């Protein structure tokens, strides 16, 4: 796996003398219920940042507490921000709180955020890096807004039974065709607007441009290292950068234009004579296509990502031992539907302690999601008759 730096790059801070540190205001004192003397507070903003941020903590409180904690001890605050995202037993795995903190960090200390991206990916996930760019472009709460719109659902249509069935069918067909054409036009307009927004922000905002460059640097360096490991048959050293690198024309790619920047760094113009004299647009198209064919596809195949087999409808080849626990819970019904024999056997082996499971992925979930015994019970209850028929 490509090595990511473990060192956090904090901001330079002036040294304070012992006299100035001892002159700090002591926290106010009070009395306990038993009338014993005590401090009413610890007086340490970093402790408040660590202790009081729990799931569903309002972003307003986090944004209020971060400046106090940063002024008290910047490096400790940076470590606590990493602790918010830590998903491998290293932190709280609080994704929304982390993105709130990252948003604040970019606003107030943009270079500190950009220079620690590799460490943030190590504590959390490579996917966090393009998502930070995406949220900076579309708004901090874009994920919640999209989820709220999606959960609204569609209003049911009520047709008049007075119309003959043939007319209703014709009207429905025409309406569907019209809506499809409108959706196609709106989709193209939306993609064009997203690209214009990304280019405009990149050109006018130096802090965003520096962050965008650092994100593409992290992905490009890891992908080039992973290709070397793949060619030397050192598969256990391949990182998950290829898995979480935005696919071409995906939502993240359309919103951030990140794939083109990564492709340019993996395949620079001077690396191949065929790019000499080629127009910039054609060069960008070629390297994007090479990124997909020569980098992402072979690396994802080497990683044996379950999503690759699922997308190709190759259910009989899905490596269940590499399915993360969260994905297992999400796709259990689909696995039962398309590959009940192999999936059931895998669950029996896991229960008996004979099967292998994705420890690296499972460690990313909370403890209550790692109980394979309960998972087997849930899956059996889902399809009892099919289970016992085997």
From TrEMBL:
Signal sequence segment: none
Residue stretches of biased makeup (Low complexity): 1-10
Annotated InterPro entries: DUF2828, UCP015417_vWA
Origin: domain of life: Eukaryota
Annotated stretches, region: Disordered: 1-38
Domain DUF2828 per the UniProt entry, residue ranges: 32-355
Name of the molecule in the record: DUF2828 domain-containing protein
